[in-house]
């Protein structure tokens, strides 16, 4: 077995009401001026104001950047950085889902290392740790609050840059399910399927190890048990809390085993058409796993078991097929679109999307490497 390295923030708070404890920790760290990176919706509904009040109560000043796009861009990073310099901030707080977390990572990384966010595309390009980042999560899906992954859309090239860098790991992650109660059905479903994709891709990854396997399978089991409930009734606190744990477990898995072609392909759809990341993942997931079943059938059969399917007395290939059907059933139950055509993806764009997908760092650990024609064929099947 190859050498494994396990990345995770030094401190991680999970559970209802943990935000208050986290703010006390931030005070103890001695920070003085925060840049809060968030989006307009969270600002308008008052969640940002609540966090600002908690900070004020412990003597910490804060400025806000709430311009983050659903797919954060190079422009968002520049805008946030300008506010950070204007207020001389000594740390960054990301508040929201994957979009604010990724945007904040980009801002904090450039603040410490200089240059432009485009300079850091790839794996471990930066020289020194970013400004301290406290990541407060409001969705159960991306796990960006605890990973070393940062995905930023380059508005000039229309692609999503994958920045995989130990230096973008937050110093503290906060998963308080009471902040997730108001999440709408569609977002709950999309982020939940994103978490499932993280777990599945990490489990079949060529960089999987016993630690990531344990995290991935437990995440799959919990998502299969609780996602439908969280979508059905957003105020079901137990389902929200279980999904917070599940997405964190999935994050631990992929942060260390990396991902595969589902993400490599979904990043292209997101960068090209500005589509929601979790929905792209959910649509592509069964099709990529059918391709992977050529070499990863036994692993997919394990996932079928974790999803509650009875596959004990069937072959590995049949077990892999059962896994694909379970994924489709879950996606259908939470109202994920059935194909890429519904998302207005154009067949004539598939060759360029496929070429870019093969360059995405996430695809390097897919269990089987694909040709350009094979990626195009998977996209076509997903239409």
UniProtKB/TrEMBL annotation:
InterPro entries: ADH_Fe/GldA, ADH_Fe_C, ADH_Fe_CS, Alcohol_dehydrogenase_Fe. Its EC number is 1.1.1.1. Keywords: NAD, Oxidoreductase. Residues 13-177 form the Alcohol dehydrogenase iron-type/glycerol dehydrogenase GldA domain. It comes from the Bacteria. Pfam families: ADH_Fe_C, Fe-ADH. Its cofactor is Fe cation. It is an enzyme of class 1 (oxidoreductase). Residues 188-383 form the Fe-containing alcohol dehydrogenase-like C-terminal domain. One of its GO terms (molecular function) is metal ion binding. NCBIfam families: PRK09860.1 (NF007363). Belongs to the iron-containing alcohol dehydrogenase family. This is Bifunctional aldehyde-alcohol dehydrogenase. The lineage of its organism: Bacteria, Pseudomonadati, Pseudomonadota, Gammaproteobacteria, Enterobacterales.
